[in-house]
Write a structure and sequence with these properties.
Blueprint lengths: L7 H4 L8 H18 L4 E2 H6 L10 H17 L4 E3 L12 E4 L13 H17 L10 H11 L15 H12 L3 E6 L5 E14 L2 E8 L4 E6 L3 E4 L33 E7 L5 H8 L4 E4 L5 E7 L2 H10 L5 E5 L1 H19 L2
Antiparallel strand pairs: 1-3, 2-3, 4-5, 4-8, 5-6, 6-7, 9-11, 9-12, 10-11
Helix pairs in contact: 5-6, 9-10
């Protein structure tokens, strides 16, 4: 700057290039984040070819080896990635991976305050790229723990972007400090009400993000869509903290296509053919309803259905892996009607 004026060409600050160690750390963080928010296990091909994760070698074999090294490095830090495929002899492109949540833990004693602060800075860079996206919440608990190790305030980060939607930030802070969140919510009918909720977790469905927690007014678990939050207050430190129940499982709160209807639920009975793996059944059912194994090797699934037509189409979409409808009659009839219409449409072509 000369004589109080600015020369854009000289004032431009070029970003510092990533060192190799920083690039690996960022890649492992992206890998952990991607697996944490994924609705189902990610295949090897997806992981090594996703530019957002960061395996950049032109050689496929080199990318696969780097992925294997990252799994080993993350395991040494307490983050375990396991193969989700039932077949251990499958080719690389057929294998899929997920976070082993039962074995994954955070050993903060293994981190120095400096390393913890570096990790917080890396997480904040991801937050800056996804400022208004609550799907980043799976990293928030890890960030809070790292802040404790680094001796810094979870809310005092200077890297926090200024354009984060304030209402979501207030919900975020309430969740990270385990304080009840107070917010105004507009339901599907356009009615606005104030809710006080102990937030337990979040999940994605399509392009929407949902929050799950205990609603004080209803005295039970409720689900809220983030884009319907009109406003949210900052939770005072004086409010009583809460603990997430150990038995809470976010999968029990996730939606299936046949949930979206104002009709009263009916109990539907589905059947998985013998040979369908337990992991695949869990991915399809999302842990909803009840399953039981039969003597012939099949698995029966009982779940409440609100939209019968959507449930019939759901069954047909998964028929190729052995899902069929057992009852009630109204659901069986709906499946048969859809099949008949498909046959007639094909014959008319």
């Amino acid at each position: 700057m000369q004589n109080g004026t600015s020369n854009a060409a000289h004032d431009e600050v070029k970003p510092r290039a990533w060192t190799k160690s920083e690039d690996i750390a960022r890649r492992m963080l992206n890998l952990t984040f991607s697996l944490s928010v994924a609705q189902e296990p990610l295949t090897t091909e997806h992981i090594i070819n996703d530019p957002e994760i960061g395996y950049t070698s032109p050689s496929r074999e080199s990318r696969i080896k780097a992925f294997a090294r990252d799994r080993e490095s993350l395991a040494s830090l307490g983050v375990h990635i396991r193969e989700a495929s039932d077949s251990h002899n499958a080719k690389n492109e057929q294998r899929s991976w997920e976070i082993d949540r039962t074995s994954t833990h955070a050993d903060t004693a293994a981190l120095s305050p400096y390393d913890a602060e570096e990790a917080v800075a890396a997480i904040d860079q991801i937050f800056a790229l996804h400022a208004d996206d609550p799907a980043r919440w799976p990293l928030q608990m890890a960030r809070t723990k790292l802040c404790e190790t680094a001796g810094i305030s979870p809310e005092g980060s200077s890297t926090q972007p200024l354009n984060i939607k304030r209402d979501l930030t207030n919900l975020w802070n309430a969740f990270s400090r385990r304080r009840p969140a107070s917010f105004t919510y507009r339901d599907a009918r356009g009615n606005e009400n104030i809710h006080t909720v102990d937030l337990y977790g979040s999940f994605e469905r399509g392009s929407y993000v949902y929050l799950v927690g205990r609603d004080h007014g209803a005295n039970g678990l409720r689900t809220f869509r983030t884009d319907r939050v009109v406003s949210a207050k900052s939770s005072p430190e004086s409010s009583r903290p809460y603990a997430i129940p150990s038995e809470f499982d976010i999968t029990g709160s996730q939606f299936l296509p046949f949930d979206f209807s104002a009709c009263n639920p009916v109990l539907a009975e589905f059947s998985f053919s013998p040979g369908v793996g337990a992991h695949e059944i869990e991915l399809i059912t999302k842990g909803r309803g009840e399953t039981r194994d039969e003597e012939d090797g099949s698995t029966q699934w009982s779940v409440d259905v609100r939209d019968v037509d959507a449930a019939a189409r759901f069954a047909l979409e998964h028929a190729h892996i052995g899902l069929s409808v057992r009852g009630p009659k109204v659901l069986v009839d709906c499946v048969n009607l859809i099949k008949q219409k498909a046959v007639m449409a094909h014959e008319q072509q």
